[in-house]
Amino acid sequence: MTLLVKDIEFSYNSLAILKDIRFKLGPRQLLGVLGVNGAGKSTLLKCLNKILHPKTGSVFLGSRDMLMLNGAEIARHMAYVPQKYGNESLTVFDAVLLGRKPHIRWAASQKDLRIVENILRQMNLEKFSLRPVNTLSGGEMQKVIIARALAQEPEILLLDEPTSSLDLKNQFEVMNIISRVIRQQDLSAVVSIHDLNLAVRFADLFLMIKDNTVYGLVEKKDLTPEMVRDVYGIEVLLGNIKGHTVIVPV
Ligand SMILES: Nc1ncnc2c1ncn2[C@@H]1O[C@H](COP(=O)(O)OP(=O)(O)OP(=O)(O)O)[C@@H](O)[C@H]1O
């Protein structure tokens, strides 16, 4: 389903953070949200699923305006992975099963349990199934929160810095899983990400935020060093190593 975001404006008290934010995202696409610290990336993600209430604008998923739905209804369509999350004493299995909550009426079904088992296996988290989440390392915990979002089987994944605590291998493992899931299950993902090399590897297009608004919505092939310089204030080279685009500060 297509996500169509129009004219989002948001302020904390009287401090304007986002204005005139608009973009369109098709199914099976991963949008990297780029911008400097404090640009408003997390704020934007939270405006899309109504954790924050934008002053104006609309967020259409197909013909449905998400901002007209309540939190429980939104959770059936959108899963959100925050940048910070609390320590939980739940076991890993139960924490991931919580992702099924928007779909469960009375009790978890065999299907719900199977979905959780599959995701734990895909993400190499099986061995932690019975461990309380608050005994895991930061990176292991981050994978559990992403597993929970996948268990939710949403149409849109909203991921705020999903790889920030992960080592190189896990960054690639997790981004590969996300890429594969969105392609196999016709989802889309909106991912705030600081690591530009990871972004160019996995995102299909970029929403670049600067001065509280959209600097550009560009496809990967159209990204230029000038755009990176304008948005981040640093000169970079854009190169290619064995078919992979790389960005190097100079
Ligand atoms: N609850 C709040 N009250 C007031 N200002 C806030 C609040 N939360 C965030 N801000 C401010 O809003 C601006 C945007 O913050 P946001 O977290 O969306 O940026 P970001 O692009 O995600 O940053 P980072 O890359 O550092 O995570 C920042 O200047 C921040 O200080």
From TrEMBL:
Domain ABC transporter: 3-236
SMART domains linked: AAA
GO MF term set: ATP binding; ATP hydrolysis activity
UniProt entry keywords in alphabetical sequence: ATP-binding, Nucleotide-binding, Translocase, Transport
Domain of life where this protein originates: Bacteria
Keyword Translocase carried by entry: yes
Function statement: Part of the ABC transporter complex HmuTUV involved in hemin import. Responsible for energy coupling to the transport system.
Protein name: ABC transporter, ATP-binding protein
Organism: Desulfonema limicola
Source taxonomy: Bacteria, Pseudomonadati, Thermodesulfobacteriota, Desulfobacteria, Desulfobacterales
